[in-house]
Specification:
Growth Hormone, Chain: A; about 450 residues; two-stranded antiparallel sheet; globular; mainly alpha
Length: about 450
């Protein structure tokens, strides 16, 4: 009988994604506008930098998966990396938000180096973290529960960073320069992330081991992955989902700063909260509600149908953003809540289904390579994030964006398209991919029972 996962362990696992998501959301929401409006490089240069550095970063994911699959310690294969990488991860985050007093070319080189290091550190800690889900339990219900906890805490971390990032930066700007303020903000956020990662390491366990007779064979592991059709379908859906999210998230700060006047919405002590902060906070809160509802909705409809319907609905709702006037902030908030709810539903399902594809591979081939499956999955997530981030900045450049000046009507029109129709296309394609996904809940239950029998005989 499969050992069930305790509540403490689920919370511990969730804290790891809270830490990762704090940094992920900083990259998604704030890094582009930091580079263009504070650091001082052009949108086109930043977009190209995102693409070039992330091509190398994307290749790192399967390498990290292969390394972690072949790691043997008293703590397991994946947990040790949470302990080893946490502090370097936070330090590089601070360096990323450090603005040197250099020429534009020097700053661009610095951005390339620090962003590359940041993505390598993110890979080194996040690939093992993601892979941990595949070895904590073989129970498909517990996996969906773990994935839901992961996503709830992920969006909890996102809520936290959205709530404190800009207010803390604004508060520090009353004391030090703008550049130093953002650097100190990352010191605070990095310290929180390190604490969360160490708790994840301490509170989780690895239970599933590869079959005893399995020999390390990188060639066979890659061959099995290439033949894993359900994984490829998730690859396509995952990439398009991240394009949908990263374009919406990346352009949001520009939308409020240059289209809707981003005046102070409220002030508490020395910290100010803008309309854009409330917009992003609302989105993360709605994401979290979607995550919570993923399990009961998918229990009724199945993972595949839930994913597909949520993305198609998100596409339709996203398109409506185009018709919002700058005075209709309330409508913008309503649409943000609805779209974010749909987006929140699919993320725990996506990672739970990646674990299912690892089981499917073991069922059909007799071999298990959890790290490779999850690292390759993480690679595709980063590919979608890369494309979405680069598309955001390139489109801004295409529409004639210039930092810290009043934008032309054509530029404003482009920004509105980037919050509506562009992400809607990504969401729609993601939903269409799921139409072809065949590992439904009934099939996975049969696979779970069969694998349990095999492991009992090992």
């Amino acid at each position: 009988m499969t050992e069930r996962v305790s509540l403490k362990e689920k919370i511990g696992y969730g804290l790891g994604d809270a830490a990762s998501s704090m940094f992920w959301k900083i990259f998604t929401f704030y890094l582009a506008i930091f580079y263009t409006d504070v650091f001082g490089i052009s949108a086109a240069a930043a977009g190209t930098m995102f693409l070039v550095t992330r091509i190398w970063d994307t290749a790192n994911d399967p390498i990290m998966g292969i390394v972690s699959d072949r790691t043997h310690t008293r703590w397991g294969k994946f947990r040790p990396y949470l302990l080893w990488v946490a502090v370097p991860f936070a330090i590089i985050g601070v360096l990323l938000y450090t603005t040197p007093d250099w020429s534009t070319t020097g700053k661009l080189i610095y951005a390339y180096v620090t962003y590359t290091l940041m993505m390598m550190a993110y890979t080194a800690i996040n690939v093992p973290y993601a892979s941990l889900l595949g070895v904590m339990t073989a129970n498909t219900v517990d996996r969906t529960s773990l994935a839901s906890y992961r996503m709830v805490f992920a969006f909890g971390g996102s809520l936290l960073v959205v709530a404190i990032y800009q207010p803390i930066a604004d508060m520090f700007q009353n004391i030090v320069s703008t550049n130093a303020a953002y650097q100190l903000t990352m010191v605070v956020i990095g310290a929180i992330a390190v604490t969360f990662f160490i708790l994840t390491f301490s509170w989780t366990r690895e239970r599933i081991k590869p079959p005893k007779e399995q020999q390390n064979s990188l060639k066979k592991d890659f061959k099995n992955l290439i033949n894993n059709i359900p994984w490829f379908i998730l690859l396509g859906a995952g990439v398009m989902t991240l394009i949908f999210n990263s374009v919406r998230d990346g352009v949001a700060m520009y939308y409020f700063k240059y289209y809707i006047t981003d005046d102070t919405a409220m002030s508490i002590s020395k910290m100010t909260f803008t309309y854009s902060t409330l917009y992003l906070f609302l989105g993360q809160a709605a994401n979290m509600i979607g995550v919570i509802m993923a399990k009961p909705i998918s229990a009724r409809l199945g993972k595949r149908k839930t994913f597909m319907y949520a993305m198609v609905l998100a596409a339709a709702l996203s398109s409506l953003f185009y018709f919002c006037t700058k005075e209709a902030v309330a409508l913008v908030y309503v649409l943000q809540a609805l779209v974010s709810f749909c987006a929140g539903i699919i993320f725990p399902l996506l990672w739970s289904m990646y674990a299912d594809t690892a089981d499917f591979s073991e069922y059909t081939t007799g071999r298990r390579a959890t790290g490779l499956v999850f690292s390759a999955s993480s690679m595709t997530q980063k590919l979608g994030w890369t494309l979405g981030g680069s598309i955001t900045l390139w489109l801004l450049a295409f529409y004639g964006f210039e930092a810290n000046v009043q934008q032309t009507p054509d530029t404003i029109e482009g920004i509105k398209h980037m919050l509506s129709f562009v992400p809607a296309i990504g969401a729609l394609i993601s939903g269409l991919f799921m139409y072809f996904y065949k590992l439904d809940d009934k099939t996975m239950k049969m696979i779970e029972v069969e694998l349990a029998k095999r492991r009992a005989n090992d």
